[in-house]
Amino acid sequence: MTTTDTSCQLDSAAPVQEDEAKPFWQRFDRWWLLFAAVVIMTAWLILARPDPYRRAFVFLQDGIRVTVSITMVSFLFILVAGLIGGLGRISKNPLINGISSIYVEVVRGIPLLVQLLFIYYASPIVLRGLGRRLLDIWPGFATRLIEIKLNPFAAAVLGLTVCYGAYMSEIFRAGIESIAKGQMEAARSLGMSYFQAMRHVILPQAVRVVLPPVGNEFIALLKDSSLVSVVAVADMTRRGREFMASTFLALETWLLVALLYLIMTLFFARVVAYLERETTFVH
Questions:
Q1: Taking the model in full, what pTM does it have?
Q2: Taking 60 as the threshold, does the pLDDT of residue 282 lie above it?
Q3: What are phi and psi of 117, to 5 degrees?
């Protein structure tokens, strides 16, 4: 090993050693204190004033599960759609690049709420019309299209995936393009195919670059998941509306809903910040 290689390894290890040498109170993420304060405030409201806060919390519990589930499921599909879209955006094939670019530009120009409403209410009309036209050509498939009924959960996941997949495509595109071109050239010179080089060399480095914006998109997705209540998904926002409609307690209902959303976003924001620090140290 040369002197230069040794010094580079020492330099890269220095931030990790320096951080580990700090006392715990200096390494502690103080934003956890805000998270704890919000949790304590929410718990105090629920325990000190069981009517209406405990009653509202019990009513909202299934909505909390739906909110978390729809966020997690959508995010997995968004990562896949974003990766495919990002690779399409950097493709040298004009057709693939054109389709990916049109998808990104069109979807980013339409509000998420409009996309959700279109997918749930308008797309079945389009599919039924298509089915009637195909009835003589492909009867079995056409009948399924005519009788189609969208599940609210599936429609919400599709809408969130389509919308956020476009933004995630740009994040992956920027992350991949930030890696030096010499990395790809070196991998190809070692006999790797384009896909092998992308999988084993480029993408692992790009993940470290895109992790912060991807984390931010997850937090934004969690908050924007409240919009799925307009397509009959019984998430926390919809359950909050139902509780308010039955009790006429607008202030108490939406205060609790806001605190519950804040708890979730603060928690996941701290997890994302921790992953960013760990990835930086590994890098």
A1: 0.84
A2: no
A3: -65, -40
